[in-house]
Amino acid sequence: MSIIWLCREEQLAPGEKLKVANAEVGDICVYNLDGVFYATTDLCTHATASLAEGDIEDNLITCPVHWGQFHIPSGKAVTFPCERHLRTYRVSVRDGEVYADVSAEAREAEKIECVQI
Amino acid sequence: MTKERIPLRPIDTTPPLRNLDRICDMESGRLSGKVFWDDEIYQQELEKIFARCWLFVAHESQLPNAGDYLTTSMGEDEVLVVRQKDRSIRVMLNACPHRGNKVCFSEAGNARGFICNYHGWSFGADGGRLMGMHESKCYEESGFDKSQHGLRQARVDSYKGLVFATFSDEAPSLEEYLGPMTWYLDVVLDMDGEGSEFFGGCIRSTIECNWKVAAENFVGDILHGGWTHDSAARAMLGSAVANVSDMPESYSVNWNGHGYEFGTDVVGNAATLGEKNINKYLHTIRPRVAEHLGEFRSKLIGAISSATIFPNFSYLPGQNTVRIWQPRGPHKIELYTWTIVNKSAPEEIKDMWRKGCMMTFSPTGVFEMDDGENWEYCTKTSRGLVTRYQDLYVGLGMHTRIDDSELPGNVFRGQINECNSRAFYQRWKDLLEAPTWADVPDRNGRMR
Amino acid sequence: MAACADGGGDVMAESNLMQGNERMAVLDERARKAEAFLLREARLLDDERWDDWLAILSPDIHYWMPGIENRRREDRLGTYSEKHMAYFDDRLRDIERRVARFRQPSAWAENPPTRNVHLISNIEVFEGECSGELLVYSCFMNLRSRGLDEQHQLVGRRVDVLRWEDGRLRLLRRKVLIPNAMLLCKNINTFL
Question: Based on CB atoms within 10 Å of each CB, which residue in B53, B132, B424, C52 is the most buried?
Answer without folding.
Answer: B424
